[in-house]
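Known limitations

C-alpha cells in this collection are predictions and should be treated as such. Users comparing against experimental data should check residue numbering before alignment. To illustrate the layout, the record for FAD-dependent oxidoreductase is reproduced below. The input appears on top and the generated C-alpha cells appear beneath it.
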Amino acid sequence: MYTALRLQQKLKHELARGEVEILVITPDPYMTYQPFLPEAAAGSISPRHVVVPLRRVLDKCKILIGEATAIDHAKRTATVTTLATAEEGTGAVELPYDELVLAPGSVSRTLPVPGLADYAIGFKTVEEAIGLRNHVIEQMDIASSTRDPAIRDAALTFVFVGGGYAGVEALAELEDMARYTSRYYHNIKPDDLKWILVEASNRILPEVGEEMGTYAIRELRARNIDVRLETRLESCEDRIAVLSDGSRFPTRTVVWTAGVKPAPVLAATDLPLNERGRLRCTAELTVAGVEHAWAAGDAAAVPDVTADTPGTETAPNAQHAVRQTKVLAENIAASLRGAPLQQYAHKYVGSVASLGLHKGVAHVYGRKLKGYPAWFMHRAYHLSRVPTFNRKARVLAEWTLAGLFKREIVSLGSLEHPRAEFELAAGGKRPGHGPDGARHRPHGGPLPGPEGGSKDEQQSDPRGN
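Generated C-alpha cells:
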C-alpha cells in the first residue's frame, strides 16, 4: 500500500496522461495496521480503524481483489485467482506486467504439533483479533454458567505460544481486558483466570533488549501470568495443552504466535530466493540478478548497508518495511525516467511494546523506558505511523473517549454467523448450536462456519516495530 501510495504521487503526471497504470493485487480491500491489533482485541480501538481502505487511499490505482498464485517473470505474467474466477468457473487468469513489485509479507510458521491446526488461533488479522476477544469473553460466560469445575477451569485457562511482539502484547492486552471484565461477573475473580505464556528461548521481546525483556517478565509475573521460558508446546489435542516441561493444562484457548515464514507465492516464482525462502535483493530493492522486479518488507532479503558486519540483512519488521517503500517507489520512478537509483539505508532505532493499559517497555535511541512513559511512547509512535490523517484522528478520538468512559465488555461472537437467527426462524438448526439451541464450540476449537464446516483461521505473527 505504501509503495503504491508513493508511486501515484511520484507518477501523477504520467498517470494523468495515461502513460502509466498501477495495478494492486491484494486478497483484502484494506491494509491492516498490525501493531494496533492487540488494542483492537482489548476493545481500545474499533476494528474499522485498524484497517485502511485501499480504494479510498489509492484513488489513482486500480485495485484487484485476488491472490497471485504463481509468477513467471521470464514471461512477465502473474497467475491470479479472484472472487469472480471461482464464480465463473474459468480458473485463474494470467495478467501481464512491465514492472513487478512483490510485497506479500509473511505467514505463520507452524510446527507439526498435534491438535494445533484443529484448536489454535493466530493473531495476524483483524478478524482473528476480534474473534479472540469474543472468544475470551465467551469463555468467561461459560465459566460463569457451568457447574462442572473441569469445564470452568478449562474455560478460564488461556495459553499463548510465542514470546515475541504478537504473543506478549496480545496476552498482556487481553489479560488486562479480562481482568477488568471479571468485575461484572458475580462468580469470577481476576485470580480465577489462568494465563500462560510459552516461549522456546530463554527470553521474551528480544527486540527491546535483555534488560527490558527481563523487566517485562517481572511485570507479567506480578500480574499472575505464568511465563515459561525454554519451554515448547508439544500437543494441544483433546483440549489439553501439553508442554515440554511435563505440564498439562486443560484449556479451550491456544493462541499461536511462534514465528513467521515467507509467503508461499515466493516459492511459485522463477525469482532467486535465499536459504530462508526470501527474495535475494540488492540495496536498491531490486531482485538480485533480475531486471524489472522489485521487493520490500518481509519477503525481501535486503542487505543492511549500515551494519558493521558484512552480509547482514535488514530485519523483517515494519520499521524497515515502511521505510523501504519510500526508496522503492522513488527507485521505480527513477528507473522509468532513466535516473540513477538510491540505496536503502536505515539504522535500527529501537523498539517499543505495550504490556496493557498504562504499561509498556521501550528501548529507543539507546534509552530504556518502562511503565507509563514507555506505554505513552508506544501510543505516540504508532499514532504517528498509522496511515492517513483520517485514521489518526479516529484512533486519537477513541483513545480520548476510552479515557473518559468505561471499557466495553461485550462479546459479538454471533457476527461469525450472520444467517444463524434467520435460519433458525426458517425452521433450520442454528449453526454452531446443538438441538437444545445452546451454542457449542466443538472441542473448544473454531466455531463451525455457516454451512456447518469448520472455519479455517490463519496462524501468524505480525511484524513488530
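For this record: The CA atoms of residues 317 and 463 lie 5 Å apart. The domain at 2-22+58-106+261-336 is CATH 3.50.50.60 (FAD/NAD(P)-binding domain). Please report discrepancies through the issue tracker.
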